[in-house]
Amino acid sequence: MSSGGVPSAAATSSSQCCGQHGSRGHSARRAPPLAIHEQEVGVADTLQLEPLTEEAFVANLQQRFKRDLIYTSAGDVLVSVNPYKKLALYSLDVVEAYRTKALLSHLPPHIFALADKAHWNLRERNEEQCVVVSGESGSGKTEAARIVLQYVTVAGSGPTGAQQDPSLAPIKQVRDRLLQAGPLLEAFGNAKTHKNDNSSRFGKYLDVEFDFKGDPVGGTFTSYLLEKSRVTRQLAGERNFHIFYQLLTGADIQLLKSLKLHRNIDNYAFLRPSRPLSMETIDDKRDFQVTKKALETLGFSAEDVVQIFKVVASVLKLGNIGFTPTSNIDGTEGCTVTNDYELFEVCGLLGTNPMELTSALTQRTILAGPVLDSPSTNPAPPPPPPCGSLRGVKSGGCSSSVAGTPPSFVPSSSMSSTGSRDVYEVCEMLQHSTLARLTLADERGSSSTAGELVVADLSASEATASRDILCRALYSRLFAWLVKQVNDATRVRKYGKRKVLGIMDIYGFEVFDQNNFEQFIINFCNEKLQQAVAECTLRLRQDEMLREGIEWTPVDFFNNTPVCELIEKNNHGILAVLDEESQRGGPGGDESFLARLCHTCGSSAYFETRNCAPHSAPTDLPCNTSVPPNCFRLRHYAGTVTYNVAGFVEKNNDTLPLDLSLAMFRCEHPLLKNLFPEGNPKRTTLKRAASAGTQFKISVGALMGNLQSKTPHFIRCIKPNELKQPRIFENALVQHQVRYLCLVQTIKVRKTSFAHSESYESFLHRYKMLSPHTWPCWRGSAVEGASYLLRDLPLSSPHFAFGRTKIFIRSERTVSELEEFRRQRLEDLAASVQKMWRGYRCRQRYLLMRQSQIVIASAWRSWREWQIGKTRLFKGKKNLFCLYRVAREEYRELKRRKQIEWAVQVIQTHYLQWRRRQYLQRLCVSLPSDSPVCREWPMAAKRLADANLMLRRMHHKWRCHKYRLKFDQTARNRMREKVTASIIFKDRKASYPRSVSHPFLGDYVRLRQNVQWKKICVETNDQYVVFADIINKITRSSGKFVPILFVLSTSSMLILDQRTLQIKYRVPATEIYRLSLSPYLDDVAIFHIKASDLGKKKGDFVFHTGHVIEIVTKLFLVVQNAVGKPPEVNINTEFEANFGSQSVMFSFKCAGLPEVQPGQIKIMRKGSRMEVLV
Ligand SMILES: Nc1ncnc2c1ncn2[C@@H]1O[C@H](COP(=O)(O)OP(=O)(O)O)[C@@H](O)[C@H]1O
Ligand SMILES: [Mg+2]
């Protein structure tokens, strides 16, 4: 049914247009390879259009259309105007041109360019893609989707690749199957309508899966709601589904015979309304061969094909079955089948018993009377008008005639919905899996009571309706089964990473004179699609710029969200009202639905009925005569459509009477068990499926979700005329489409915005090799990296804008340039990698050859020597050779050992270096605290002990130094005193360790603040007190302790009365020359005074104080400062002291006497000896 000359993998010549189009209709002219470069007509990229108005845009399309340039770029969208004739735009040369050059595109806009971009993004950027084709019915969507599919399936390994390379045979098979699925599904799902001779009567979404190379590995088709009502009824001038005509005109006589069909189309009631039709564009005979080929390619066996055609033939023949009204004894109406032979033939085709099929068609099993203790939440339907007679009760679907007519039961006039509802409801309510478990009326008696199943005869019209339901169910289920089989055939069978490219070809917007449930569903789908496209091209783009802080001029556009909500809103939408009405059941459903719609949706500006105009409450209104009775009108984005509600409820319910399901399930035809699973008596679930509307709403929601999760590419198809004729361009029609597709707004948004936006991170990741600043790795922030990168490229700054988190690139051309730079750089990088690898490989080869040469040479020499030794019988010479061989072996052994030693050394050195490095690295992270008193230090291996010690010392010195740096002058002085104390006493005096932690406070009596002292010290020039405390002076005569105030100033030592502060002695520091102490724990110190006048007079002083270490240290320093040299510090157990007139020997003993407490001392004078017991 296609017409465009599009490429296909099945092509045999690279220069020919190919695909099934070659075999359908007139074949396309051979494309001159450079046809695509022809001189530009109008503006190919409408971003450049000035002024940008709707009129100018349409005029531009027209100008191009006249010259067969049907593709025009409108911002992110590709506009395609249906040429209604074959164009030489799709040859393999053109494919190749776009495949190789599209990214640096100076090529005109083309559907291949769009497909190539999607395929390239998928392959190179590893992003999932989706091509969305939209437009009115007949605008060329299906063709466009087919061209995209054909392009992307050949884009990976090239159009002819799969044919030449046998390893690509699986790819070829996948390609062929994906491409052949289209003609097959079109044969069963497309039909001629007023709008289009090959109108898709189902929605189609195809996910093509690609491997990492970009070759197709499989695909999944999803079909949406087939317009099955077409099977039994078509508008005048329209046709049924193509397959019926194809079968009748294309099948050979044997096949027709086996299907019990006649070639004459007029013989079939379901096809008759479409006659006569002059079908220039459709060649059913040839198309049948295409369909058969597609079935074969998709792996259907000959047996499967026959079974499929049997179902198709049965539908045709069922359509011929008529019913004659009869009167039952009870006065009710029944019917009989008029043309039995058709029925017999149908039974032959389906493998069933004519009786059974007859009763399934002419009778209905339903529940007699209300089920009182039903847990159903549905309100009980009002009693329907009588229209059938009860004849019996069914058990498990087998008719068993039972007398009696229960007065309470009357079957519904709308058998297709209500009858089946009853049976389903009964089963649901009673939670029974089979009818057999229901209470049988004949077990209880002849009269049926509430909750019993009874069989009712149908009137002739009801039986006809029942027949139509069966035909529609048979056909639509066969179609669903075919889609499933196609999916099985195109399922991915290869493991590995895969990416998906979706192609969406949904039915186009439709307005007919009479619009029914199908048009409502189709147009709802189009509303949703329009909403999604507007979101992506208009709203999201503008929102992004706002979010990123980029300057732009906002562009207004028509937002169709209110219409979508009006239809799909939960509880209050049209679909929700329809569902409620469908669940309620009962007669007059459609009218009641319309009334409820008026009530619920009447206030919407987009909704109108006869009783309510927009914006008005229904009750206040005069009659709105513009809307016909029984209709409601919706203001869709593409125009206003008036829908007739007749059949809405029934079609929404979409249930099949259980009698028919049971009858079909019991047929021997192998497909029917699959198509009617609910007819299986062993079936355990009888849950009713969601309504058709709800199912559709859910699947459209999922489809839109799917679209949003992928990178979209939009093709907007435009229909140039309603006559389906080439060369006719109806301005008003095109302008209307341009307006509702918001094309001018899209261009305006694109004009003020950017072609491409990408997060800084991903931009940098992709192009970092283009700048020496960012290659091989960039450690700074991504924004900075991106700006460095761009600075290093020969691109000017107006081409970019920096958002908050994203970089914006003005034109597609700049993106292409960036990609080209990247490609070239990657080539260079690949060349250097290759160079290195080749060099390495050559060197390895050379080394191997050299080694081999040595081995061969040595073997050769050995052999030659052996030969010589063998041939020459000179013994001496033989020995010489033996010696030579031994010597050579030894030499080799020596050489080997040397090498080993050398190797060991190298290894050892490296090992040690490694250990050292390890040690240092570990040390670096495990250094102890900076406190000088911290004694911790990490352990080291024995081999590194010296270095470890050295480092420890260095570290300690360093941290001491650091510690000292923190000192002020006072602290420094104190430290100096402590260090001096350590020098003098460490390891010499037992009481020293105790003093270490004790701070040298100096002025223990706060003398410096004493007023009296302040006066005294001025006189003696002793203002700077170093030490002051009350200590014991030991009397020379008896060794008694006399408390005195001992003061040490920077110039002298003073002994004062502790109460009066009267100076008893003042000894200048220069007079003190020695300080004597014992090594014990005692606190005695003797200060030796020079033998001057004072010294002669008074002699040395003996003191006892708890601060002996501090006094001695400070005195030591004072004397050192005064004299310039330190006094002698004598630490001994015996020493002499000058007591003025005599010399006394001090003797210290550590006797441990019981009378001497630890820390105390006892001093005894014995003549010239002074004994101190510690
Ligand atoms: N690119 C094209 N080249 C030639 N003819 C085309 C092209 N696109 C569409 N047509 C013609 O228009 C008809 C309707 O196109 P189709 O894709 O079935 O419309 P849609 O799917 O939108 O209802 C096709 O049968 C074909 O004859
Ligand atoms: Mg279509």
Q: Low-confidence runs (pLDDT<50, min 5 residues)? A: 1-35, 370-450, 616-621
* Largest beta sheet: strand ordering: 25-24-23-22-28-27-26-29
**Terminal residue distance:** 126 Å
- Could you tell me the number of beta strands? 33
Bound ligands, each once: adenosine-5'-diphosphate, magnesium ion
Average residue pLDDT: 83
Q: Major beta sheet, specifics?
A: 8 strands, mixed
Going by helix content, strand content and strand pairing, the class is alpha+beta
Strand content range: 15-25%
Indicate the percent of residues in helices.
40-55%
Based on Cα principal axes, name the global outline: elongated
Polypeptide structure, described:
Helix content is 44%, strand content 16%. The chain is α+β, with helices and mostly antiparallel strands and 1174 residues long. The strands form eight sheets. The protein has an eight-stranded mixed sheet. The longest helix is centred in the last third of the chain and has 60 residues, at 812-871. 41% of the residues are buried. The model is unreliable at 1-35, 370-450 and 616-621 (pLDDT under 50).
Write the layout of secondary structure elements.
Layout (H helix, E strand, L loop, with lengths): L19 H4 L30 H13 L4 E4 L2 E5 L10 H10 L9 H14 L4 E7 L5 H15 L5 H4 L4 H21 E2 L7 E2 L2 E8 L5 E9 L17 H9 L2 H6 L25 H14 L4 H19 L2 E5 L5 E5 L2 H11 L3 H9 E6 L21 E6 L2 E4 L13 H16 L10 H4 L7 E6 L2 H31 L8 E7 L11 H31 L13 H8 L5 H11 L4 H13 L5 E3 L21 E6 L2 E6 L3 H6 L4 H8 L6 H4 L16 H17 L2 E8 L12 H10 L2 H10 L3 E4 H8 L14 H10 L8 E3 L3 E4 L2 H60 L3 H51 L19 H21 L3 H17 L6 H5 L14 H10 L4 E10 L6 E9 L2 E5 L6 E6 L3 E6 L6 E6 L3 H6 L2 E4 L3 H16 L4 E4 L2 E5 L4 E7 L12 E5 L2 E5 L1
Parallel strand pairs: 2-18, 3-14, 3-18, 26-29, 31-33
Antiparallel strand pairs: 1-2, 4-5, 6-7, 6-14, 8-9, 10-13, 11-12, 11-13, 15-16, 16-17, 19-21, 20-21, 22-23, 22-28, 23-24, 24-25, 26-27, 27-28, 30-31, 32-33
Helix pairs in contact: 2-25, 4-5, 5-7, 7-8, 7-10, 7-16, 8-10, 11-12, 11-16, 13-22, 17-18, 17-24, 17-26, 19-20, 27-28, 29-30, 32-36
Bound molecules: adenosine-5'-diphosphate (ADP) and magnesium ion.
